[in-house]
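go over both lines:
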Amino acid sequence: MASRRSVHAQRSMTRSRKILALVPKCGAKSDVESSESSEDEFQTCRPHQDVSEDSSSVRSIASSVENLKISDSDDCEYREIYAVASVHEEPRFRHSTTNSTPYSPSILQHDPDIIPPSPSVYIPPSPSIDSICSPVSSAPAATTAITANATVHLRRYKKTPVIVKRTVLKPTKMSPKWTRSKFQGSAHLEDNMLFDSVGIEKSPLDYFKLFLTDDILELIVYHSNLYSVQKKGTSINITKDDIKDFIAMNILMGVVDIPAYTDYWSNELKYSKIADVMTLKKFQSIRRYIHFNDNLKDDGDRYYKIRPLVEKVRRNFALNIPEGKRFSIDEMMVPYKGTRAGSRKQYVRNKPKKWGFKFFVRASPSGLVHDFLIYGGEDTFRLHTFTEKEKGMGLGAKVVIALANSIKQKPCSVIYFDNFFTSIELMHHLRSEYGIFSLGTVRTNRLRGAEKKLPSDKELKKKGRGAFAQVVSNEHNIAVVKWFDNKFVVAVSTYVDAYPVQNIMRYKKEEKKKALVTCPNLIKHYNGNMGGVDLADMRRGARKNAHFEEKICK
């Protein structure tokens, strides 16, 4: 037992000698007096108190604390320096009774220079922080008399978390009265004629220029040259013609595939239609510095680097393309499996290309895109405004409303969408506020009581394939139809209902042949107009044509 105590005493003495060895002699120069940064030196004093920079401020344990650099000030944390005496003594500061300041909560309340105490440790009768770290002239000599085996400890105070209150929007909900009466909100629409094509003959380049206008080329030229100056100090001096060549070369590279883009200029695989337009060095320079916005103008937008380009192209889609009266709204994926997109990269399991950037697209049944939005979380509707009622309808409804605002012929137009977007509130709002009809499949938990009036799946299945049931709300001009085909489908419309009933061909497993199946009228409307976005996606993905590629390579 005695040997253990002696070992403990030796360790304590060794620790004390190391600490006392760090205490500078009287009048010693500070180790950090030549530093130019205020962060290199720990000086805690009153705001209007002059501090000498020529020597150490205190000939005491505080100087050792400075040399140890364990008491650097921190804007986000409070720190407490306290001395603990030997294990046989009660922790305390030894100082003169004439200049001592006993601990008082009022001092810590009103004096910001005093470090607040920790409630979890012993609070000694401590002097103010001025008596520890003030200049020599104002430091009491008694504060230097600290026990030889004292140790200095550091206490960190965690930053108090800031609670941000977010406004919770009340969801917009309706309570329609559903009946099985005749639907009175039917409307007759003309065929989806795009425009009169007589006398209009344009080349593919003319159509391309409708979207990539001169102001877009000027934007790319300006920001690319600006970025090159910011990075290397000199401009690469590209022009609009260089950008046109660069875009054309990238399009052609998508048709004629070579393992590496540098191979188009190689001796073995040289492709003259690309190599003769621009040198490899210039192509790499444009590829390295091409930009669409100033990097210094980061406003928190996830897509701020391409936002000016995207909005210009989007306006050209909405303004320059003649449109009809029927549109479909759906998701479209731009494939991307890289690692630099962060949270901008999305995963949609039901799409052929599951990884990439998600777009919401409004297209005609012919597959022509008229408007689009990039999904970016809270930044999706950065440039759109909604009423309080529209905000409470959810993401899908806001997407439909944002894309519907750019429709030129708003009265008597029709929008088709799937169950991701459909809600009773949205469809009523589109017809009453915008004069736009709508039709879409709907999830059963969004029917607002209509599911109670409709027969169950078991009851409808007994009637056989092609059976359907309908309920309507003539007050809100809404019709809900449940139809049994291979699966159960529930659709909602504001301009058409189940009648007149039509027949369609379906393959029946029991009879092993095709046969006629009863089909409600609104289902036929939906199937005939909903595939516009999928058709546009298919045409965009089919970038290669064997005959076209063979013709180019000759």
